[in-house]
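Shall we go through a protein fold together, starting from nothing but its sequence? Please make up or recall a protein chain and show it to me in full. Go ahead whenever you are ready, and we will take it from there.
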Amino acid sequence: MKEQLVVKKLSDYVNKSLIIVDDDNPFRERLAKAMEKKGFQVLQAENVEKGIESVKLNKPAFAVVDLRLGDGNGLEVVKEIQLSNPDSRIVMLTGYGNIPTAVAAIKEGAIDYLAKPADADDVEKALLANSSTKAAPPENPMSADRVKWEHIHRVFELCDRNVSETARRLKMHRRTLQRILSKRSPK
């Protein structure tokens, strides 16, 4: 028998504040705009220090925290969120998903763990899902080709759009990378 997924509505919550802590600026901005359209009151932070500072000031009800940040580990922000608001609902995001970090995130108080790139609908479902059941799998998950394309473009942006450096880090031939970069994104 299949478990019934119960998703609360954002209107069921008095406090609609959401903090997004991620050092990937374009991703954070896109996610923030999408979550604002869904009714959340969004705060943003780009590193552990600013994330902790914002959490102390605002005590958000919801949080989306990247695991690896430029100045440390997102789990530090999760600990601070749990101290300031134990009822908060936290989702960890990472491009480097593995079992030990997922376990650590859940132990610190995260309710779910999503691999990047996650879209706003997946994040919203995870934040509002009933805590006694798992969030539903995504309706339209990205294809493997799309995930690969997103990863290559993310590394390309992190290398300041330097093709040679990106190719070296991805361990691929520069011309192969140039061909991939010149194509449109797969569906």
Q: What stands out?
A: The chain has two domains: 10-128, 144-182. DSSP finds eight helices and seven strands in the chain. The radius of gyration is 17 Å. The helical segments are 25-37, 48-58, 75-84, 99-108, 120-128, 144-158, 163-170, 174-182.
